[in-house]
Amino acid sequence: MGRLIVFEGIDGSGKSTQFARICARFENDGVPLMRLTFPQYKEPSSALIRMYLGGEFGENPEDVNAYAASTFFAVDRFASFVKVWRDFHRAGGVILTDRYTTSNALHQGSKLPERQRPDFFRWLYDFEFRLMELPRPDIVIYMDIPAEEALKRIKTRQALTGAASDIHERDEAYLKECWRCGAQAADFYGWRRISCLKGGVPRTEQDIHEEIYQILTQTE
């Protein structure tokens, strides 16, 4: 089997930036790899996700319960695994992915009271990794950033790109709960936490990148 490396974090954490930098550096190092991003918005398998995030099932994230919404994203991952990367992974290839099952832990687990989340976390991994037979991550890089800082970044990004917000991004209370749930999930699953701030000040992209690179090359 190959190696599955997952980048996770709340919206605005810098997860996608660090994912892209590590992919580029691994490719420069000559590491044969495949890069993935979830959800697959351009694929038919994401139809229910697009309906959900577009507000067709309700304008608030809580309008669809954690378990139901999780299945939308799981089906999209299953389709990707079977059609795109199963053979590469089984042949020993390195897979790097921006989001994975781990995103349901943050975004859907946040809909539940804190005391109910451990049961959800157990169900989630059992559902996707045992019942659906998707690969379990070898390592999860969790971008740990305070919700307030993430919100600043989201607003800056939207002002620059003019992109419309989905039901997750425009709900600040929901994002803050995702941050709290993310910390709980990271502890529960044993993810590698990468602090995006040092002494209350945002770290540089390069500083964070070097830490992640060292972690991934030391655990090969």
From TrEMBL:
Enzyme Commission code: 2.7.4.9
GO cellular component, one term: cytosol
InterPro entries recorded: P-loop_NTPase (IPR027417), Thymidylate_kin-like_dom (IPR039430), Thymidylate_kinase (IPR018094)
Domain Thymidylate kinase-like: 7-177
Single biological process term from Gene Ontology: dTTP biosynthetic process
HAMAP family: Thymidylate_kinase
Cross-referenced PANTHER family: THYMIDYLATE KINASE (PTHR10344), UMP-CMP KINASE 2, MITOCHONDRIAL (PTHR10344:SF4)
Protein name: Thymidylate kinase
Gene that specifies this protein: tmk
